[in-house]
Write a structure and sequence with these properties.
- The chain is mainly alpha-helical and 507 residues long.
- Helix 7 packs across helix 12 and helix 9 packs across helix 11.
- The chain folds into three domains: 3-123, HUPs (Rossmann fold, 3-Layer(aba) Sandwich); 132-193 and 225-307, Serine Threonine Protein Phosphatase 5, Tetratricopeptide repeat, CATH 1.25.40; 334-502, Orthogonal Bundle (DNA Cyclobutane Dipyrimidine Photolyase, subunit A, domain 3).
- The radius of gyration is 23 Å and the shape is globular.
- It has helices at 17-20, 35-39, 45-64, 83-94, 107-114, 132-139, 147-158, 198-210, 226-247, 264-269, 274-286, 292-316, 344-356, 361-375, 379-389, 395-406, 423-429, 450-461, 463-466, 473-481, 484-502, and strands spanning 3-6, 28-32, 68-72, 98-102, 120-123, 162-163, 166-167.
């Protein structure tokens, strides 16, 4: 009996579980470009184009290897425009009695598959290095799910940068050598732009005709097949990895990439695998081309943080998306959709996001995420924005990063304290503040940096929750030590900022 083998747009890997379980001579691979997936949130046009172009090329590659592929294009009049609808249509067409699927990275899609009036066998996505079962076993009985301890287990499991049972260099973490402040000499060769070929050009025209979401589609710079993704990986390792560690938290106006890898979209849709990426980095370190701090810092992000947040997503389940531990309810300000602002850092981060569908982790965490948290924006709105606007955003990785790390909506599952800061951090790590309408050194008044005002307002309104936190006690002592009139002025200034946000005025 024929089975349908579902391959989703972020599962473009030859050995993905559903393909491995299929019979090439009998089964039919189903791939579908559907409007429902492009509009479940208003995805960035470049993200939609990347996925559609990569899907089309992957389907052709499968056919060249002897697979029978039923491919539905977005503009096909017969397309039902939902994954479920396309599976039912293809089941009737081929007389299929079962669907093989690899577990999707969104709970919504998994629920839709489970509700199909067809038998569906969902296989674990074993492209990850830590299985769900192993992560659950690691998490069981722990009071705190600290990423550092998980990371050490993954180092031992993979053998990456290990000398026997000890970490290379005698320590697990080289953070103290990394994360230097922004300086003009940080500029490195810009990641290569991949010129659109005929397939990509066709997709770009289709996306322009069908979608009007936030974000610029052109110029489109992404690789859309495995050959291109491998080229992007090689270029990063050779040209930017040596400085990656020390520059990873820096921000410079007009410089989107610095020494970052910019390969997360390829990892997250399947064009690259996590182990091959880490092995390439480890090999460069072993050859003496890369400092140990840079190599370790990168590998930690992949086998540590990336695997960890995926485990949290699987462990906590769909209810995780509804977390709101701090009770925040404010609407997402218009600046996130390109509205006018006087804050240079927000303008830079959002503008880059609009133009590229990309911003590095500190721009996301300590600029746009920090501002949303300090302002008390509803975490579900922040989650939807991040899922919408970034090319590499998929729920399994985006939701824990946003709801847990960025917005503290999970109450501290991912971190023992919220990631909040005043403008001083942004001033230290970037060159934004010099050209800003606001003055980062001013603590009160109309020219005071909104981050300064909102930081203390956040601490004050959440005093009962955080005053006993050992990592935040010092800041409460600083706040309490301020003169009463100064504290009142700070809070009044913050309330004025929040009132402007609520009225839709420029901040």
């Amino acid at each position: 009996m024929v089975r349908l083998v579902l391959v989703l747009g972020d599962q473009l890997t030859r050995d993905v579980a559903a393909l491995r379980a299929a019979d090439r001579a009998r089964d039919v691979v189903v791939m579908a470009e559907v409007m429902a997936e492009g509009t479940s949130v208003p995805h960035h046009p470049q993200k939609i184009a990347l996925i559609l172009a990569a899907m089309r090329k992957f389907a052709v590659a499968l056919e060249s290897e002897g697979w029978r592929v039923a491919y539905s294009r977005l503009d096909d009049p017969a397309n039902s425009q939902t994954i479920s609808g396309e599976l039912l249509r293809r089941a009737a067409e081929f007389g299929a009695a079962e669907v093989l699927a690899t577990k999707p990275g969104e709970w919504r899609v998994l629920r839709d598959l489970q509700e199909l009036p067809l038998p569906v066998r969902v296989l674990e996505d074993d492209r990850f290095l830590c299985s769900e079962a192993k992560f659950f076993a690691w998490a069981e009985g722990r009071k705190q799910l600290r990423m550092e301890w998980f990371y050490r287990e993954m180092r031992r499991k993979t053998g990456l940068m290990m000398e026997g049972d000890q970490p290379a260099g005698g320590q697990w973490n080289f953070d103290h050598d990394n994360r230097k402040a922004a300086k003009a000499d940080l500029l490195r060769p810009r990641p290569r732009d991949f010129a659109p070929d005929a397939v990509v050009k066709e997709v770009l025209s289709l996306v322009e005709a069908r979608f009007s979401h936030f974000g610029r589609l052109r110029p489109f710079r992404w690789a859309t097949d495995r050959v291109g993704a491998l080229a992007a990986l090689r270029e990063f390792v050779e040209e930017r990895l040596p400085r990656f560690g020390e520059e990873q938290d820096a921000m410079l106006a007009g410089e989107a990439f610095l020494s970052h890898a910019v390969i997360s979209p390829y990892l997250n849709i399947g064009l690259l695998g996590p182990m091959e990426v880490c092995l390439a980095v480890e090999a460069a370190w072993k050859a003496g081309r890369v400092p140990i701090a840079a190599a370790e810092g990168f590998i930690r992000q992949v086998i540590g943080w990336r695997e960890y947040v995926r485990g949290i997503w699987a462990l906590k389940g769909p209810a995780y998306l509804e977390g709101n531990a701090l009770g925040h309810v404010r609407a997402l300000p218009g600046v996130y959709w390109g509205g006018e602002t006087g804050m240079a850092c927000m303008e830079a981060a959002v503008g880059q996001t609009r133009d590229l569908g990309y911003a590095h982790h500190i721009q996301r965490l300590m600029v746009t995420g920090n501002f949303a948290l300090l302002a008390g924006v509803h975490p579900a709105a922040v989650h939807e924005w991040y899922l919408s606007v970034y090319v590499d955003a998929f729920e399994w990785v985006e939701a824990p990063n946003t709801l847990g790390m960025s917005q503290f909506a999970d109450g501290g599952v991912l971190g023992s304290k919220p990631y909040v800061s005043s403008g001083a951090y942004i001033d230290r790590m970037s060159d934004h503040c010099g050209g800003c309408r606001y003055r980062v050194k001013e603590k009160v008044g109309e020219r005071a940096c909104p981050f300064n005002l909102l930081y203390w307002h956040f601490l004050d309104r959440h005093r009962e929750r955080f005053r006993g936190n050992p990592r935040m006690g010092q800041m409460y002592r600083v706040w309490d030590g301020m003169e009463a009139g100064h504290r009142e002025a700070v809070l009044a200034g913050a309330e004025a900022v929040l009132a402007r946000l609520d009225r839709g005025e420029v901040v």
